[in-house]
């Protein structure tokens, strides 16, 4: 007869085997849960603030979309419009190809017939005629004649300022004479004061011509009436052509009445 363990011992072994299996299963489950927690926790593995997203997240994980966005051009400010100058009226006024007339702000140049007119106009012609210019608005839009009031810039050159610097214009129509302040007024006044005087001076060797002097009227000889040549006796008494030798040139009032036909020659 073989010895067998008592039922109590076998029950204890079976009970502890079951507990061991349960323990192993629990360990596997705990380790698996730890891995899932670390990968699903949004607070782990990022240094950004709450709510921040990476470029990949922002683009939905599409690298092609990000590249397309990077290649898009940056919007630029539209360029300022320019206007073609068709002709120059004078040193401070121009006509545009679109039919508008522009009066340069803050300067004044000589008018037609005044000293310096040609030089001022020719300088402005060289600066802007046939060129495209930028018009910069001042404190007013138009003058009483309907002309646009603008600064005229030919590229980087302020045409009005250049005329001041060349001594071909004066700073005018500003706050000093009741027209109101304009933005470039301080610079215009400063350049005007430093520019040469545009007043025309006569050459030093010039001597104005005097009108020819009329010779004083010759006094008739004693006993002769004035206004007759040759001599006719003083009136009264009255004389006739029979009393004198003609012909006689009459240049006076002819008190003797010798020039009957009033042609300046008597007693023909």
UniProtKB/TrEMBL annotation:
Highest taxon of source: Bacteria
Chain ranges of the TNase-like domain: 79-195
Biased composition (Pro residues): 209-220
Region (Disordered) residue spans: 36-85, 190-229, 242-268
Biased composition (Polar residues): 36-46
Protein name: Thermonuclease family protein
